[in-house]
Design a protein that fits this description.
Number of domains: 2
Helix content: 25-40%
Number of strands: 17
CATH class of the largest domain: Alpha Beta
Shape: elongated
CATH architecture of the largest domain: 2-Layer Sandwich
Radius of gyration: 20 Å
Length: 288
């Protein structure tokens, strides 16, 4: 099995994948989420591992767009606590940094620290935390990146500040693939759907879930691909019932313009990080 994951080496996606699938897995790096989905869709790799949501920055729109456009299913998920570090190309204090290079979500996660300690530094945006570390390695100016300890080690940078994220922060990753296999006791099912543009459409849809005693963990809307269309991403809790979601879909269909079943799967989390070594935590079906 070969997984597609966001590159270059040292990204949080790569670290999350190794926690999810083991350290000996084979990896193929993708430049962005669209390319990652294309690698799996085309059969060049069997599976992919994609960031879906961050507790500070919210849902990752490009991941939702690719889920809507592709035929791939969600096969599993993992929530990982994020610890951010300030990685510099020299041994100096944060206030001396002239240039801060960061991926935008990482920058948002560390807003308080950046505002307080790096307000005089110039900010540049790039597409991944590992790419930021690569760029800092090549900089002649006093530069720093926001990223993981591993990316700092990979690119020979010094950690000049640790745990700079704003409080508790996590990223949720999904395992994607072509298989329709459903977990024996799934914790969640995910759906994408579009509703008619009329008053009460969402109310009527939610009534179907209520009548079947299904709890929703998440419901989020975003603009669709046509004017005045909104697409809803919905996560249904499955831990307290044995309902097979694909058998339930015909009840939802009359209320939707279209509906796409993304899969039923097990979701786990890493509960804490002790000395840089994550400890596997309880499953999501027991609550957060």
């Amino acid at each position: 099995m070969v997984y597609a994951v966001l590159g270059p080496p040292g990204t949080f996606s790569e670290e999350g994948l190794r926690l999810y699938a083991g350290s000996d897995i084979k990896i193929r790096e993708a430049e962005d989420i669209s390319q990652l989905f294309a690698l799996v869709d085309s059969g060049q790799v069997s599976d992919g591992f994609v960031p879906l949501e961050n507790s500070s920055a919210g849902m990752i729109s490009s991941a939702l767009e690719c889920l809507a456009a592709s035929s791939l299913k969600i096969k599993g998920a993992l929530e990982v606590p994020v610890r951010q570090y300030l990685l510099a190309n020299g041994d100096y204090v944060p206030e001396e940094v002239e240039l801060l290079i960061s991926q935008p979500v990482a920058l948002e996660q560390c807003r308080n620290f950046v505002t307080a300690q790096l307000k005089r530094s110039r900010k540049e945006i790039t597409d991944s935390t590992a790419r930021a570390a690569q760029m800092v390695q090549q900089e002649k100016r006093r530069a720093a990146a926001i990223g993981s300890q591993r990316s700092g080690r990979l690119y020979g940078l010094k950690t000049i500040a640790a745990d700079i994220q704003d409080g508790f922060n996590y990223t949720r990753f999904i395992h994607i693939g072509k298989s329709d296999e459903i977990a024996a006791r799934p914790h969640k099912s995910s759906l994408l759907l579009s509703l008619p543009d009329k008053a009460g459409a969402l109310y009527e849809l939610l009534g179907v879930f209520a009548r079947n005693q299904l709890n929703l963990n998440k419901i989020e809307s975003r603009p669709g691909r046509v004017p005045e269309e909104y697409v809803f991403y919905i996560e249904v809790e499955q831990g307290r019932n044995d309902l097979r979601m694909e058998m339930f879909l015909p009840e939802l269909t009359p209320y939707c313009n279209w509906i796409k079943y993304l899969g039923s799967y097990t979701q786990k989390r890493i509960s804490r990080v002790d000395g840089g070594l994550p400890q596997t935590g309880r499953d999501f079906c027991h609550g957060k």
